[in-house]
């Protein structure tokens, strides 16, 4: 019932994120990774199976318990069945992020054979037009629904992920009801990150304002969530979520940046924090074909800097926020992308603070008065 | 905090708040304790806020247990352990301090 935000950190490599494919079968307008569109005439890097196996073998003695498969689109990987088999044989928990399009009953059964599979599938609207407007490929809505139904058929109730955009917010409620109908377990609402294609959307004014997002969030968690048995999760930094929502008996925990416990392996075999290495070359730590995972994990200067500073070095609003140890700047990779510093604040909170929208009770003494004077100016 | 005396927490320890710590209440009746000395924050639920308020005037775990039983119905049988756990969390984070032994109370019970 009680939680502290100052627990001692442990740097166990508990999870690897595998970005299995450099290409993707969809062309989502908000995608922060912006993979190239793969079709019958274009194909791109896929992570070699031997690299996946060797990195898992190296990581298990370092504490690995979970593997996240993402992309591009992980189900596009030509050896996806071998990959799933290997994960199962190694006794690792599977976390899979997919657009659902290629999830036939065969893939669904292979996923279901893994340990505690957690699957999230993206749906950006409750109708063909709205979803496909954002996902860029005709026919992907019905295939995604079919994919979800295949998962449900084998006992997996996936999480639906909806990215909130001006053109789809009128379909939030219908999407929740659709999710219920097709057997999902929860719906997560994401905000667009101003990285990759999301940056273009943002600069074109095609994203929602912080004010609008916060109003939507209140409605989703405070009203809509009472009208459905599904768990609804509005994914914003912890400062914007009530303590009971984070720590209460049915609380969902805080959304903490997990870079101190994860390693990303990109489709070309490079190591990075997560997928950010695709955009920021200095956040590529080495290559899985030539560098030992343990050496990189224990000795890479960026990871060392991160661990040394994570409790003390956050700047701006993150440095003045009560939640900093429970949140760790929300997404250090995004923060680095924007500022080339590990310690700059998360854009959403920074902007909210500038506009007087940051919750005063989450500000350390001193920052509260500054926010009030910001609002006056 | 208790270096001079090095008291150990027991049911009769007199416990108070660290005067430097601030409590910030939120709309859902949870709250945040902030200790500027170690820049640490603790999120606390309404029950723990009740305990915190009792500590503001100094109290013991024995007193707290009685107070809870007087105030609430359906109190769990292991309430004393639960209270001790919360108080220990307060003390370990430097939010509360052990001020000494409440000998009067101990004598009274004998
Ligand atoms: S959001 Fe996912 S499905 Fe869409 S382009 Fe990016 S990786 Fe592909
Ligand atoms: S200000 Fe920073 S630490 Fe606080 S909630 Fe936002 S991102 Fe997290």
Secondary structure elements and their pairing?
The complex is a heterodimer of chains A (377) and B (110).
Chain A: E1 3-4, E2 15-19, E3 23-24, E4 36-37, H1 49-59, E5 66-70, H2 80-89, E6 93-98, H3 105-112, E7 115-122, H4 128-135, H5 140-153, E8 159-163, H6 172-182, E9 186-190, H7 197-203, H8 210-222, E10 231-234, H9 243-247, E11 262-265, E12 270-272, E13 284-287, H10 293-299, H11 301-309, H12 316-319, H13 324-327, H14 332-339, H15 347-354, H16 367-376
Helix pairs in contact in A: 3-5
Chain B: E1 13-17, E2 22-25, E3 31-35, E4 40-44, H1 46-55, H2 61-71, H3 79-92, E5 96-101, H4 103-109
Antiparallel strand pairs in B: 1-5, 2-3, 3-4
Helix pairs in contact in B: 2-3
The structure holds iron/sulfur cluster (2 copies).
One iron/sulfur cluster (SF4) is lined by residues 24, 26-28, 31, 33, 35, 71-73, 99 of chain A.
Give a brief outline of the structure:
The complex is a heterodimer of chains A (377) and B (110). Helices cover 36% and strands 15% of the residues of chain A.
């Amino acid at each position: 019932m009680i939680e502290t935000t100052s627990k001692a950190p442990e740097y166990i490599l508990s999870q690897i994120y595998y970005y299995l494919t450099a290409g993707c079968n969809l062309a989502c307008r908000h995608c922060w990774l912006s993979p190239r569109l793969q079709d019958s005439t274009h194909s791109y890097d896929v992570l070699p199976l031997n690299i996946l196996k060797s990195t898992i073998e190296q990581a298990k003695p370092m504490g690995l318990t979970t593997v996240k498969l993402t992309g591009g689109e992980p189900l596009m990987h030509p050896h996806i069945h071998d990959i799933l088999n290997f994960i199962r044989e190694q006794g690792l928990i599977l976390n899979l992020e997919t657009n659902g399009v290629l999830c036939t009953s065969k893939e669904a059964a292979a996923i279901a054979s893994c340990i505690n599979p957690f699957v999230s599938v993206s749906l950006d609207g409750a109708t063909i037009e709205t979803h496909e407007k954002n996902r860029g490929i005709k026919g992907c809505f019905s295939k995604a629904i079919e994919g979800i139904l295949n998962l449900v058929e084998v006992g997996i109730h996936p999480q639906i992920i909806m990215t909130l955009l001006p053109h789809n917010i009128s379909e939030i409620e219908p999407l929740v009801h659709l999710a219920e109908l097709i057997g999902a377990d929860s719906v997560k609402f994401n905000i667009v990150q101003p990285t990759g294609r999301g940056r273009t959307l943002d600069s074109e004014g095609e994203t929602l304002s912080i004010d609008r997002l916060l109003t939507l969030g209140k409605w989703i968690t405070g009203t809509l969530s009472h009208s459905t048995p599904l768990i609804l999760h509005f994914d914003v930094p912890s400062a914007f979520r009530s303590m009971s929502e984070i720590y209460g008996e049915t609380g969902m925990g805080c959304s903490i940046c997990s870079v101190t416990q994860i390693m990303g392996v990109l489709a070309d075999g490079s190591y990075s924090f997560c997928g950010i290495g695709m955009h920021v070359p200095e956040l590529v730590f080495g290559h899985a074909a030539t560098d030992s995972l343990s050496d990189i994990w224990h000795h890479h200067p960026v990871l060392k800097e991160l661990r040394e500073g994570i409790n003390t070095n956050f700047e701006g609003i993150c440095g003045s926020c009560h939640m900093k140890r429970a949140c760790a700047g929300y997404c250090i990779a995004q923060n680095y992308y924007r500022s080339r510093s590990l310690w700059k604040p998360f854009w959403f909170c920074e902007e909210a603070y500038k506009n007087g929208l940051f919750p005063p009770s989450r500000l350390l003494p001193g920052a509260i008065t500054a926010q009030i004077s910001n609002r006056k100016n | 905090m208790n270096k001079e005396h090095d008291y150990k927490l027991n049911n009769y320890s007199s416990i108070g708040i660290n005067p430097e710590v601030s409590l910030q209440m939120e709309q859902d009746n949870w709250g945040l304790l902030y200790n500027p000395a170690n820049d640490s924050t603790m999120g606390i639920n309404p029950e723990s806020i009740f305990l915190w308020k009792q500590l503001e005037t100094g109290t013991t775990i024995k007193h707290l247990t009685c107070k809870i039983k007087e105030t609430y119905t359906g109190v769990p049988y292991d309430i004393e352990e639960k209270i001790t756990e919360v108080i220990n969390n307060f003390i370990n984070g430097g939010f509360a301090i052990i001020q000494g032994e409440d000998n009067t109370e101990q004598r009274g019970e004998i």
